[in-house]
Amino acid sequence: MSEPAETVGFLVAGEPSPEQRAALEWCAAAGIDVETISLAAVAGGDGRLAAYDVLWWHRAKPADDAVAEDASVPIEAFLTDGGGLLLSLRALEAVPALGIDSVGPDAAGTEEGTTGLLVKSLRADRPVFEGLEGLRVPTASPEAEQPFARYQGILPHRGAVLASTLRTDGERPHETALLGWRIGDGDVAGLGTGVRFDGPVPVPEAAARNRDRLLRNLLAVLGGGDRLLEHDPKGTPALSADRKRLADDHHRPRYHVSPPGNWLNDPNGLIKWNGTYHAFYQYNPGGPHHGTIHWGHAVSEDLVTWEDRPVALTPSPDGPDRDGCWSGCAVDVDGTPQILYTGGRDDVQLPCLATATDDELTGWEKSPENPVIKSVPVEPRLRSSDHWRAEFRDHNVWLEGGVWHHLIGSGIEDGGGTALLYTSEDDDFTDWTYEGPILSGEAETDGVIWECPELLDLGEKRLLHVSNYEEVRYYLGEYADGSLEVERTGLLDHGAFYAPQSLRDDGGRWLTWGWIKPDRSPEAQWDAGWSGTLSLPREIDLDEAGRLRQRPAAELTALREERGYDGSPALTDERHDLPLDSRSFELRAEIRLDDADECGLVVRGSPDGEEETLLRYTRESDLVVDRSASTTDHRASSEPISMPVTPVDESLSLRLFVDGSVLEVFANERHCLTTRIFPTRPDSDGIALYAVDGRAVFEDLEVWTMGSAWPDVGAESERESERPVGPEN
Ligand code: FRU
């Protein structure tokens, strides 16, 4: 490694502390050109700042806000001109006082057990991590008590997370350790954990090497060598750059609405506005884990191709949504879209309102009246949990008989989940009258909490669906006077599909998207750099017999690229490899078990069969996704997922969508099963059919390779690996 060329101004407030002296000795030993400069001198404008490339403030003790505030103007000017600033350990707490960010760290103190940094995989190629191996980087002695400052339950308003914390007892994605800000032409880094020079216990050799390397990198980058960050983390350029960076990950879906990177859960605020579809979603810009929930935003003109928009909703440090902007809906109120969402703060969750400030729905103004419902109802008594004084969240709003109806999900203390109704005759959405539950379930069969309740008007009947932590249950029946009379109940999906939300299209059809859960370990998600995706949009309605029907939205056929197979093969006790390889395709067929005991499909199979996923159609009228050999990675779930389908004397009408790690099955336009598979091998992209103990027919079998929903981003690699061939049989 070359000798550092930058000149460092080491900031002190008074006499250097033992920790600061040890840091200065470290600089001397590392050959870093360093001088101490007092914050008072900086504040007094002694003009010497221009002599430095980078300023470093390193403190084991809490920083004095007044001292930082006094120095903030010259430091800001220094940064704007391209200078760099490193704030380590508790100096990070000075971020608001220095004017770097309106939101400061929410956790500081001393602790034991920190071993180092957990680097974000999306940022691992930044120059600041050069020469460090892997994402788990020891830098500290876990036995020593260490000072720290971090953003834990919140994120900075403008800053970006580069790394989190590694502890002896595990990984802590939500404990941010390294953050970056761009101020004018300059960069600021905050390193709140894992750097200590004067500890009571020596830092193990390998950790000390990493610490030294990281600090040299930081000083070099901040000193002007490179950029710490590329972009503002919540703006479109940063999101698009993340999406591009992930384009070669063969687990990433190509034609689903996926997050640009980081974490996605529920679809939110689905609305068609001025001819454009808007899908918002629960998004954590901090990393691929749940926490500090914002609203991400994607738009589409055709329901098929999508574009990223800037992060739409951010928790307000002083607001009732400080700890997260949880799920909610968007409604057109007299030509202005409104969002109702759940704000969380401490152990309270209550409804909040925001109004669109532009036609692109990129700007949202939060109501000064938030929360717009001030407390939870007293009757029935609502269930509490370790986190929440009362579970009370998620919003579904519709207009009926000139009255706004508003459902909120909850659970009854010692009872089952419930969907609570509020009404309002007012368009300003701040005055809600509590009406009581429209339906409550049994704890054992229906679950103890109902999240994301939604009541859809399907013409003849109403459909209520709720997400009860495990599954999405629906209740079909008649709705009148604030109560649902249930006639039929079932599951919307039998797999990893959760917290769905719907929009009503121009033609009056309902389109429903769900969150497809990750189904692999937190470590695997961290390594991948992203987690979760939205399902394909489904059209939900009733068939002639009044049963629930679910079909992939008709527009999705526009994604088909090439027909790789077209025929009606019949198989007897054999397996037949289809002449195409793909990991993003649609397959449809009418499948008949003539006298076979079982038949099915193999997808994402490797040539030697080491990895393969089976869709097994059995005489028991079950469709089973057998994931026992889907992957050799033990961090992904291998549990089988099954669902009942039609009796075997009828044929099974199957539409299957495979997209990277996503598998969505529609059977007989009625039963759905969504799951995730994570093959490790790049050649796990074979497709085959099989029949066991007899004959089975795959009538009208078609396989289509599918294009990308993100046409601007990295669509090339998959296309190269496709080998579509003409019809057979
Ligand atoms: C469902 C859910 C909602 C909540 C949101 C938080 O997955 O738990 O109840 O609003 O996710 O992200």
Give the N-terminus to C-terminus distance in angstroms.
Answer: 63 Å
Shape: globular
Helical content band: 10-25%
Biggest sheet architecture: 9 strands, mixed
Record field, number of beta strands: 46
Radius of gyration: 28 Å
Low-confidence stretches: 715-729
Q: Looking across the biggest beta sheet, what order are the strands in?
A: 2-1-3-4-11-10-9-6-7
Question: What does it look like?
Answer:
The model is unreliable at 715-729 (pLDDT under 50). A hairpin with a 2-residue loop joins strand 10 and strand 11 (186-191). This protein is globular. The protein is mainly β. The strands form 9 sheets. A 9-stranded mixed β-sheet has the order 2-1-3-4-11-10-9-6-7. Strands 34, 35, 37, 42, 43, 44 and 46 form a 7-stranded antiparallel β-sheet that branches. The chain has a 6-stranded antiparallel β-sheet with strand order 36-45-38-39-40-41, with no helix packed on it. It binds beta-D-fructofuranose (FRU). Beta-D-fructofuranose binds next to strand 12, strand 16, strand 20, strand 24 and strand 28.
What order do the helices and strands come in, and which of them pair?
Layout: E1 7-12, H1 18-29, E2 33-38, H2 39-43, E3 54-59, H3 65-80, E4 84-89, E5 107-111, E6 114-119, E7 136-138, E8 146-150, E9 160-167, E10 170-183, E11 186-191, H4 205-225, H5 236-245, E12 262-273, E13 276-284, E14 294-300, E15 307-313, E16 324-333, E17 336-345, E18 348-356, E19 364-366, E20 392-400, E21 403-411, E22 417-424, E23 433-440, H6 443-446, E24 451-457, E25 462-467, E26 472-480, E27 483-491, E28 497-504, E29 510-516, H7 522-528, E30 530-531, E31 533-534, E32 538-542, E33 548-552, E34 560-567, E35 570-572, E36 575-581, E37 584-592, E38 598-605, E39 613-618, E40 622-626, E41 641-644, E42 652-659, E43 662-667, E44 671-676, E45 686-692, E46 695-706, H8 716-721
Parallel strand pairs: 1-2, 1-3, 3-4, 4-11, 12-30
Antiparallel strand pairs: 5-8, 6-7, 6-9, 9-10, 10-11, 12-13, 13-14, 14-15, 16-17, 17-18, 18-19, 20-21, 21-22, 22-23, 24-25, 25-26, 26-27, 28-29, 29-31, 29-32, 32-33, 34-46, 35-46, 36-45, 37-42, 37-46, 38-39, 38-45, 39-40, 40-41, 42-43, 43-44
The chain binds beta-D-fructofuranose.
